[in-house]
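Narrative of accomplishments. A recurring question from our advisory board has been how the design workflow behaves on a single, concrete structure rather than in aggregate. To address it, we present the structure tokens for one chain from the evaluation set, followed by the sequence designed for it. No filtering or post-editing was applied between the two.
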């Protein structure tokens, strides 16, 4: 008889989630079973909860969702070496083929056959999750588990921000969601001269200030160019990090970059965005699409936290996993940073 566990499940096509008992996964060859300690709610999970057009296109219920987590190894599948039962771990949520051109080059984030934990296969909002050992990331026990729980999102921010040199540079971040807030902290930690973030949500802009942004600009009432003058940003921003997926924000970013400026694009738009190609070409702007994380970002994240980058200000809510509805309500309200769910207590 199969052992059962609690899991947060998308049971059918439609809004909402349910706490259900499902079978504990059994690790096959090369796989590892992880006992989950903490999870964090991601924007992707909110899409699935709300059952928006993205979720309709990508999710096939019933399935366990979630992909931001930290836990300990409960069982090693056949052939797994270099890990031990009880070891603290997290995991890269993109499972890749390992043999396409990008995988062989070390650019696994661009694997054409990526399978995502909590999207394409059962995820980590459960007492146990099973992933390939090749995706395991060992976690130093000195790191706070509440923070490690959202290393997946931290990795998106690290990949986006560290694509370009930041030392002594002026950085504009558009979108003060959790990843934008984290990026503000990374840019400050990495030596940026000025960090400016824009949004329309005062609650999240205030969190971004706590994460190190020099100015948090509400574009519904503040003049970004006036802020630039006050900060002595004369030629324009050197680096732009587009986190919002908002076409108007991207267009504004183009206008305030210096010639030759560098832009990372992480935010995904729900609608097509018209851009002025002549402006990009004529001003020599460099644009880089960002998806997921590089595996090296996991090491960078650990080292930045150990080196003093404090991400705890963006953790605004903590709940037991049985109160997951409160967590999703907080995320949907827009009045939250990261929401952490605890799976260690009965």
């Amino acid at each position: 008889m199969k052992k059962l566990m609690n899991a947060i499940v998308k049971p059918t096509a439609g809004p909402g989630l349910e706490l259900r008992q499902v079978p504990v996964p059994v690790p096959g060859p090369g796989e590892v079973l992880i006992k989950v300690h903490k999870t964090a709610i991601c924007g992707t999970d909110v899409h699935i909860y709300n059952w928006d057009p993205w979720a309709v296109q990508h999710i096939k219920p019933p399935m366990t969702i979630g992909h931001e987590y930290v836990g300990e190894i409960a069982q090693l599948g056949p052939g797994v070496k270099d890990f031990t039962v009880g070891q603290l771990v997290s995991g890269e949520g993109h499972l890749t083929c390992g043999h396409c051109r990008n995988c062989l080059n070390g650019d696994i984030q661009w694997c054409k056959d990526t399978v995502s934990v909590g999207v394409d296969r059962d995820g980590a909002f459960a007492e146990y999750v099973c992933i390939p050992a090749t995706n395991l990331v060992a976690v130093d026990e000195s790191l706070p588990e509440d923070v490690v729980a959202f290393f997946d999102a931290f990795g998106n921010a690290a990949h986006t921000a560290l694509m370009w040199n930041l030392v002594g540079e002026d950085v504009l971040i558009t979108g003060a969601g959790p990843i934008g807030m984290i990026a503000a902290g990374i840019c400050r930690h990495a030596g940026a001269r000025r960090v400016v973030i824009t949004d329309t949500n005062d609650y999240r802009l205030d969190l971004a200030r706590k994460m190190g942004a020099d100015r948090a600009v509400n574009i519904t009432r503040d003049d970004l160019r006036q802020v630039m003058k006050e900060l002595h940003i004369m030629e324009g921003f050197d680096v732009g990090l587009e986190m919002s997926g908002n076409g108007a924000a991207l267009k504004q970013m183009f206008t305030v970059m210096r010639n030759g400026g560098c832009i990372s694009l992480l935010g995904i738009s729900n609608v097509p965005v018209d851009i002025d190609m002549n402006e990009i070409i004529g001003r020599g702007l460099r644009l880089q699409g960002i998806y997921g994380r590089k595996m090296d970002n996991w090491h960078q994240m650990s080292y930045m936290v150990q080196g003093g980058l404090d991400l705890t200000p963006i953790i605004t809510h903590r709940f037991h996993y049985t109160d997951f509805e409160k967590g999703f309500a907080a995320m949907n309200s827009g009045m939250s940073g990261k929401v952490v769910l605890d799976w260690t207590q009965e």
